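Long-time lurker, first post. I've been practising inverse folding by hand and with some scripts of my own, and I keep getting stuck on stretches where the structure tokens seem ambiguous. Below is the full token string for one chain I'm working on. Before anyone asks, I'm not after the true native sequence, just a reasonable design that respects the backbone. If someone could post their per-position residues I'd love to compare against what I wrote down in my notebook.
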């Protein structure tokens, strides 16, 4: 999964986010797993091929729930951005390796795995071993084959009730994915700013999250601001900057051209917000403008997709 995989693991690695994903998804919001009682577990296991040669395999994130000094449960989170038709076989391999190790040790404990699917389309691959082997199973042997299942959660399709179970930074992530253009930022504070912004940049494809990351002071990465303030600070400042520059240019190079330059910066920011899937109403609220004005700009951008921001600004001024 490359960079996307690393960004997701970066946020999920934090104990509070890891425990929140398990509690919100697996336990329906009940606070079963305490982030203060989990420790990192090995993510590399080994399996032999048909000739007895060992091969390594890597899981995304795995953690132990501790009961004092004893392991109570091992939880694993896997991430996928595309359907994998043989994912159930990977699960069998991962969990089988852990149980095989337990066979040689005194300590035994259950292994619980969940898969977070981040794709924009619905998961279309088999979710169980019986489903994967449906063409091979017969009425006689089906009952003899253990039906291993994958616990899959389609993160972009979680219901509002499911999203409300999250308490960590992941709540903002799933709300953005699910609500798209209708998403309105809340005052929830972001605790892991660096990891959060990296994950949002990868999931949305919006490079402005990287710009935010570069522009945020070190102390603000510790969770002193929320999504609403983030967007306001970095996008709204850009709009104001454009308007100010336009006023200066208007005095120096001619009033009409200056206004166009100023509005072009504003239009560029509005385009970016719209590409980020914010609705006209949400954009209007963020930059303190009327929704009708935003819709007028978006309409011009749609009618003239090849034109740059200055050309759109001139058309806008001509219509005003």
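-- Answer (accepted) --
I ran through it position by position. Result:
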């Amino acid at each position: 999964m490359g960079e996307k995989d690393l960004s997701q693991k970066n946020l999920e690695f934090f104990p509070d986010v890891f425990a929140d994903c398990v509690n919100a998804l697996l336990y329906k919001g009940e606070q079963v797993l305490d982030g203060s009682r989990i420790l990192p577990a090995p993510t590399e296991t080994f399996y032999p091929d048909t000739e007895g040669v060992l091969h390594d395999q890597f899981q995304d994130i795995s953690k132990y729930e501790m009961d004092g000094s004893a392991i109570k449960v091992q939880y694993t989170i896997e991430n996928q951005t595309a359907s994998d038709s043989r994912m159930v076989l990977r699960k069998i391999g991962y969990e089988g390796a852990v149980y095989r190790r337990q066979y040689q040790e005194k300590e035994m404990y259950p292994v619980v795995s969940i898969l977070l699917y981040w794709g924009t389309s619905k998961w279309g691959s088999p979710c169980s071993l019986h489903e994967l082997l449906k063409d091979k199973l017969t009425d006689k042997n089906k009952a003899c084959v253990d039906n291993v299942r994958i616990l899959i959660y389609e993160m972009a399709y979680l219901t509002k009730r499911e999203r409300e179970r999250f308490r960590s930074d992941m709540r903002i992530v799933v709300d953005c994915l699910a609500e798209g253009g209708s998403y309105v930022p809340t005052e929830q504070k972001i605790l892991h700013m660096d990891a959060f912004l990296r994950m949002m940049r990868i999931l949305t494809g919006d490079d402005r999250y990287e710009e935010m990351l570069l522009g945020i002071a070190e102390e603000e990465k510790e969770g002193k601001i929320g999504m609403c303030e983030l967007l306001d600070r970095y996008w709204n400042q850009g709009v104001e900057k454009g308007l100010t520059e336009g006023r200066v240019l208007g005095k120096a190079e001619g009033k009409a051209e200056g206004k166009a330059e100023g509005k072009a910066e504003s239009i560029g920011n509005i385009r970016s917000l719209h590409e980020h899937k914010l609705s006209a109403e949400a954009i209007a609220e963020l930059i303190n403008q009327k929704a009708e004005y935003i819709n007028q700009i978006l309409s011009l951008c749609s009618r003239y997709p090849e034109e740059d921001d200055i050309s759109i600004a001139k058309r806008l001024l001509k219509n005003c």
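A couple of notes from the structure itself: The mean pLDDT is 78. The beta strands are 38-40, 44-48, 54-58, 61-67, 70-80, 111-117, 152-154. Happy to go over any region you disagree with.
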